[in-house]
Specification:
Distance between the termini: 21 Å
Order of helices and strands: EEEEHHEEEEEHHEEHHHE
Largest sheet: 6 strands, antiparallel
Number of helices: 7
């Protein structure tokens, strides 16, 4: 059921190629669900969490040529369209956002698979996808891969997602500490991605939101180079979201900028 007491949301997102890669295979999405004017890419957007909600997503593509860029774009575009289509019911309500979100992520997976099968230059392309669908007073989070979501509240940054990666699993199982994981080769090998023929395990989490909360979604070009404490400090330093995005990206580039970097921030204004 759609929730009452909608909140005003301000958001900002930026994506850059980084210092090493030639192409940017990341993509991001910001905007009201069902808004036909929204397209993937950088932006500063205001909206409200009233039904059908406000959608944030980041995707980190992979594949030969420019296939990774195609996969990540298809992921965010298909996700947004699918959620919009699925919430258009006679009563203007959505019974279960978790089911809608998971089904929309799986639809994006199927779209990427079909596109790859139709063009051999895109065969095997894939992408991560991490989503925050702000609806009422909650954020419905969905994740496939290792792009992360964080919550910045009261000056503290909390990681909301777990990396679906080989190293992430070793940390979860207590075999490696987070400090040890930073030195492990192949730490960016992910366990699942959109574009896979295997059935996806779409992880869902529901998070209550409060006034002045900031959601941070990012690809591993950011989180893989910056410690949580460093990111937390930048969010304290830059109250303006566009400045915070740029500040975080600049910090990652100073650490080498070895991957594409995407940062997406959204603040709850009450």
């Amino acid at each position: 059921m759609a929730e009452s007491t909608p909140m005003r949301i301000i958001s900002s997102g930026q994506t850059v190629t980084g210092k090493v890669r030639r192409n940017n295979e990341d993509n991001l999405w910001i905007g009201a669900v069902g808004d036909p004017g929204v397209v993937p890419g950088d932006g500063d957007v205001e909206g409200r969490s009233a039904f059908p909600g406000f959608l944030l997503a980041v995707a980190d593509g992979m594949g030969g040529a420019k296939a990774g860029e195609v996969a990540s774009r298809l992921a965010v575009e298909t996700l947004a369209r699918s959620i919009s289509d699925r919430v258009r019911t006679d009563g203007g309500d959505v019974a279960d956002p978790a089911d809608v979100g998971k089904a929309s992520v799986r639809e994006a997976n199927e779209h990427i698979l079909r596109d790859g099968e139709s063009d051999n230059t895109r065969e095997g392309m894939g992408t991560t996808l991490t989503v925050a669908w702000i609806l009422g007073r909650h954020a419905e989070l969905f994740q496939v891969g290792d792009s992360r979501a964080y919550l910045f509240r009261g000056g503290k940054l909390e990681q909301l997602t777990k990396d679906q990666s080989l190293v992430g699993k070793l940390i979860e199982d207590g075999i490696l500490s987070e400090e040890e994981a930073e030195r492990v080769a192949g730490r960016h090998i992910i366990l699942q991605a959109l574009g896979s023929e295997e059935e996806l395990d779409v992880v869902h989490r529901r998070v209550s939101l409060e006034k002045e909360d900031v959601l941070l979604l990012c690809t591993d070009g950011l989180s893989g180079l910056l410690r949580r404490e460093t990111m937390e400090g930048a969010l304290r330093k830059y109250p303006v979201l566009s400045d915070a995005c740029k500040g975080l990206i600049d910090l990652a580039e100073r650490e080498g900028g070895t991957d594409n970097i995407t940062c997406l921030l959204a603040r709850v204004m009450g």
